[in-house]
Amino acid sequence: MRALTLALRFARRELRGGVRGFGIFLACLTLGVAAIAAVGSVRAAIETGLAREGAALLGGDAEMEFTYRFASEAERAWMAETADRVSEIVDFRSMALVDHEGEAERALTQVKAVDTAYPLVGSVRLAPEMPLDQALAGQDGLPGGVMERVLSDRLGIAPGDRFRLGTQDFVLMATLFKEPDGAGAGFALGPRTLVATPALAQSGLLAPGTLYSTKYRLDLPPGSDLHQLAGAARHQFADTGMRWRDARNGAPGVKQFVDRLGAFLVLVGLSGLAVGGVGVSAAVRSYLAGKTAVIATLRTLGADRATIFLTYFLQIGVLALIGIGLGVTLGGLLPLLLGPLIGAELPVPAVFALYPRPLAEAALYGALTALIFTLWPLARTEEVRAATLLREALSGARLWPAPRYLIAIGAALALLITLAALFAGTWRLTLWTAGGIAVALLALALAAGLLRHLARRLGPLARGRPALRWALDAIGSRQEGARSVVLSLGLGLSVLSAVGQIDGNLRHAISGNLPEVAPSYFFVDIQKDQMPGFLARLQDDPGVHKVESAPMLRGVITRINGRPAREVAGDHWVVRGDRGITYAAAPGANTRITAGQWWPSDYAGAPQISFAAEEAAELGLQLGDQMTVNILGRDITATITSFREVDFSTAGMGFVLTMNPAALSGAPHSFIATVYADPEAEAAILRDLAGQFPNITAIRVRDAIDRVAEVLSGISAATRWGAGISLVTGFLVLIGAAAAGVGARTYEAAILKTLGAARLRILLSFALRSAILGGAAGLVALATGLGAAWAITQQVLDTDFTVIWPSALLVVAGGILATLLAGLLFAWRPLAARPAQTLRARE
């Protein structure tokens, strides 16, 4: 207790002298904590908006969805009894066609057919302004429709012009500006078109087997228990393929995306804090080295090791709290101040306010990071006896602190990783991130040591090149701080390198490799009697290389071995929503059976399933397992008799689940086809097939790729901003290291000038050492970044990895440029100092 009281008194007196030398310490902590707090605050704002506007995003208090069919009489009766109002929506993809003086213009659109009750919540905004029912009523005997501007512009039409869906003509009455339930609809390949459901009766688009879903929005009585209603609906309609959503999570896809992106950005922010931690550690070491005279005096007067440790621990703790407080304040206020701008860019509602939880999380991260990176240099002061506390005493202390400090550092690190995993909601990504940071720090520390060793060995070989010799000697010395430069800048560049490589590989996977192997078009909703004419158009076309077709149904996997599928498979994508299902008498030419046997071509017994091998392994499925699939409200229970390889990466035709023909051929269904053709033949193929079969929907693969790439670009921008924080922090640490070395460089320049060296040659020496350090940091960062990117793309994203060389070379160039700028920024003062004055001051 006496040691603590004395330490408090000493710490208070020392803090009165100001915080000179701790600017970088405060900046690193502030920036890292602010980044994490800001990301968490924006995430909380979106989550609050989604929760508050759940009914508006969903379009009602609850929703019951069916695939390939409308609700049955029993289902409609239950909805009518439960809800005050019910709105029926039909959702599907189609081709919108416009005739421009004999020239047909077509574009893919996501059609939403609605009834007079739509929307139950919110309002549709049109231009020119008019009620939705008036717009859908149409004019001149034609039903009306509204579409998003991007679609009408693509088709070259304006309100008053005609367009066609299937075999039905519509008149465009207005442009769709706001769809109240648009954000909850999920990803769509085409822009939206709204029409009235009765107008589709003669369009041929809702024939049996075509790909559509129906959604029934429920306006429930006030005070309804959503949890109880959800359980009742799922229990009563458990075997009909019904899917339930309600206002508690009106946009589950958006929420999941926000959670994952937010978690990833927080982990990138932690990388930035680790970069800052290197600067924090360097600042503490530098500060303690400058306090050796004070420490020696205290030891002479009888202060024990605990008192000295607590004195500086409390000082640095106060400064850390100031940095964390500044970071929390900045991270909390920035989203609040920029809320209107951020909200305008978001496709979902967000409620910007000060949220305590993300701010507390960021503060915890900052406190633990500060503890981990300051405890080591603080502990080393205990290992130096009073008699040896001279100017270089700290550098002469043993490397490893006492075991109790190592245990404390390890415990703080374990707590930091545990909290990060809990807050981010993903142990796997957190452990990958922590492991990547640890490997990067180790590689950079080893590289810094190797660089110093090589510099000492190569120095004598640079005779005749004085500037290079001086640079190598300086790098090889203890005073240059090569380790701090390589660690801080290298870790920041490692994060940037990894993000750049991951981004580049995702883009390469989506838009680089696929066009060479992917089909030109997917055609869906081909009726069985249309298949002969469809294939006849393609088989004699010299521009067509390959056509693949298959029957197509959609079903929901409801049970596995008699248990609910979600209990067995968790949240695996195969059991989320409905899946494409096909049937085949024999395996395809390129199909490889990995286990079990395919059924005979004339098999007519109990239903059997051939399942994708990789997904089966993830779900823990075995040959002989029973799986229940709901198709068009009918349960089909089948036995898994084989596993096969399915490659989804080619964008070709692939089904997770294939059944024997007798199990499904009697159900209403359509066919899908993929067409591989020369680019110059694509327009004619689309024109002829769409003209002959208006109900068929064509999805151009290049357009789908561009749409995915557009979404990806937003994610990439967010991750690059996060990585940029790490790089800025690293640059700040670099500036701190350069500023700390001004005294040594001033003395060095004074010696060299006394010996006759010209200022230009001394400046060249400073530039060379900066370039060498930056190049080393960049090269090691490139190696660690490539390693991290390879691991994430291969193990987490499950895609191929190739080095994106422009991004890689930019990292190395960035390292050299950053160290050059920081080094030259602090070179003028040493060059301008007078030798006599400098040397006299060192006597």
UniProtKB/TrEMBL annotation:
Pfam families, alphabetized: FtsX
Keyword annotations: Cell membrane, Membrane, Transmembrane, Transmembrane helix
Transmembrane parts of this sequence: 21-42, 261-288, 309-342, 362-379, 405-425, 431-451, 721-742, 763-792, 804-828
Signal peptide: none
Segments forming domain ABC3 transporter permease C-terminal: 268-380, 724-830
Main subcellular location of this protein, as a coarse class: membrane
Mitochondrion found in the keyword field: no
Localisation: Cell membrane
Membrane topology of this protein: Multi-pass membrane protein
Protein's UniProt keywords contain Phosphoprotein: no
PANTHER family in UniProt: INNER MEMBRANE PROTEIN, MEMBRANE COMPONENT OF PREDICTED ABC SUPERFAMILY METABOLITE UPTAKE TRANSPORTER
Protein name as it appears in the record: FtsX-like permease family protein
